[in-house]
Write a structure and sequence with these properties.
172 residues; mainly alpha; 9 helices; 45% helix
Length: 172
């Protein structure tokens, strides 16, 4: 297995066979395989084989990391209720003071400018799943604690408004 310049894992024929032999058919559905893999022969030999995507490095060289991230953000697996969630309205409704509304408005403009609303929707979904399953995660670390929006969504436990943390530390 190797990775390309975008960090995608590219599987060889041996990698595919190993996964299939171990019964990991769900993991390989839609995975990228090296151009040397004969997909027609593999599909004819193995029944109920998941779909493979032939990897062509030349076709990806023209795409930027930002474009790659944008495509993948639009393909995240989450329920439609989260995909269709008006995340700005949701976060604004969580505010309990004028200062909070001001800070959230400022941050939402930055999130929108960086095209990160899908990320916020996914984080809302992820936090809800972790809460439903009683999973514990850290209180927060690094520059993410500077975001009051992430605090309101429950991603971390540091009230950046209370500690007067600058959002520029997060979205730089």
């Amino acid at each position: 297995m190797k990775t390309d310049h975008l960090g995608q894992m590219i599987y060889s024929e041996d990698d595919c066979v190993n996964l299939l032999m171990r019964g990991h058919t769900m993991q390989i559905d839609g995975m990228l395989v090296d151009a040397s893999v004969d997909l027609e022969t593999a599909a004819a030999i193995l029944e109920n084989v998941p779909t493979f995507v032939q990897y062509n490095e030349l076709s990806l060289q023209a795409i930027t990391v930002e474009e790659f991230d944008h495509v993948n953000q639009n393909n995240w697996l989450m329920p439609d209720q989260y995909k269709n969630l008006d995340i700005a309205e949701h976060v604004l409704n969580l505010c309990n003071s004028e200062a909070a509304l001001q800070r959230v408005g400022e941050e939402l403009l930055l999130y929108q400018a960086h095209d990160l609303f899908n990320l916020l929707r996914y984080l809302k979904f992820l936090v809800d799943i972790m809460n439903q399953n009683n999973l514990i995660w850290g209180v927060g670390r690094g520059s993410s604690v500077a975001s009051y929006v992430l605090y309101l969504l429950g991603v971390h436990k540091i009230d950046s408004l209370h500690y007067n943390l600058d959002i520029a530390e997060f979205l730089r």
